């Protein structure tokens, strides 16, 4: 579903944020992306969303080579990807319902469909009863769940998350992870960037570890434990 073949990304200032990164994520996998601040996690996610172009190598998403993606096809490409941000980027001038509806309104869904899909998404994250509220009236964990409902409202095949639990305490972080697992169980492919090593260990899922733009390891956390967690132990943010 997501294929990176020797992908490098050099920004216009000459900085090489990714250096020959290769990996494959199959449809229906749930994978974590970790690494210290500046390791290239956000850059990698931006390449998948076609917000940045690789300077070398190829990125394929759901069979299409993003190097060959015409500009006019970018919106269609992005529609198959839901994105969850650390600071959730909700709009505080409108209700929870309207925040979640936004991607559907932009995509031109008929109003009857919008209502049905928004309520289905809010129901999945347990916030149906708060659809009329302003996001400002919700707790941090609830706001993040609204962000997740917005990311999944048009039923994307792929869900990307950039430090989705960065501002949450461990209990709320676990709840968010449980939600991600539920989406994964119904077939959504997930790639979640997080530098919270403890959280990743508990999930027991595949972890891609970046260091200074290179893919340092690709394994599940138990293996990280037993082989001395190459590049992870003693590695502080
Ligand atoms: N548009 C840009 N122009 C130049 N350099 C950039 C740009 N975006 C990111 N970088 C640099 O590329 C490196 C990787 O950044 P990136 O945001 O991908 O890292 P990250 O692993 O997501 O870190 P963090 O967890 O702090 O967000 C950093 O050194 C950053 O300063």
TrEMBL record:
Keyword entries, A-Z: ATP-binding, Cell cycle, Cell division, Cell membrane, Membrane, Nucleotide-binding
Pfam families, sorted: ABC_tran (PF00005)
Gene3D superfamilies given in the database record: P-loop containing nucleotide triphosphate hydrolases
UniProt subcellular location: Cell inner membrane; Cell membrane
Membrane association type: Peripheral membrane protein
GO function term, MF aspect, one: transmembrane transporter activity
Name of the protein this chain belongs to: Cell division ATP-binding protein FtsE
The species this protein was found in: Simiduia aestuariiviva
Gene giving rise to this polypeptide: ftsE
């Amino acid at each position: 579903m997501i294929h990176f073949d020797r992908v490098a990304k050099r920004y216009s200032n000459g900085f090489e944020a990714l250096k020959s990164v290769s990996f494959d994520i199959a449809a229906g996998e749930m994978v974590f992306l970790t690494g210290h601040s500046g390791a290239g996690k956000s850059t990698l996610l931006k390449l998948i969303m076609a917000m940045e172009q690789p300077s070398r190598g190829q990125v394929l998403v759901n069979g299409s080579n993003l190097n060959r993606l015409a500009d006019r096809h970018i919106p269609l490409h992005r529609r198959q990807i839901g994105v969850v941000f650390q600071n959730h980027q909700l709009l505080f001038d409108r209700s929870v319902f309207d925040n979640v509806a936004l991607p559907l309104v932009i995509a031109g869904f008929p109003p009857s469909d919008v209502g049905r899909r928004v309520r289905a998404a809010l129901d999945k994250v347990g916030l149906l009863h708060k659809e009329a509220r302003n996001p400002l009236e919700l707790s941090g964990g609830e706001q993040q769940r609204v962000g997740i409902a917005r990311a999944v409202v048009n039923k994307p095949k792929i869900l990307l998350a950039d430090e989705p639990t960065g501002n949450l305490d461990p209990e709320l972080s676990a709840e968010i992870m449980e939600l991600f697992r539920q989406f994964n169980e119904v077939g959504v492919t997930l790639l979640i960037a997080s530098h919270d090593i403890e959280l990743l260990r508990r999930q027991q899922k595949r972890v891609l570890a970046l260091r200074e733009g290179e893919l340092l390891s690709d394994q599940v956390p138990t293996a990280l434990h037993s082989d001395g967690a190459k590049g992870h132990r003693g590695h502080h943010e």
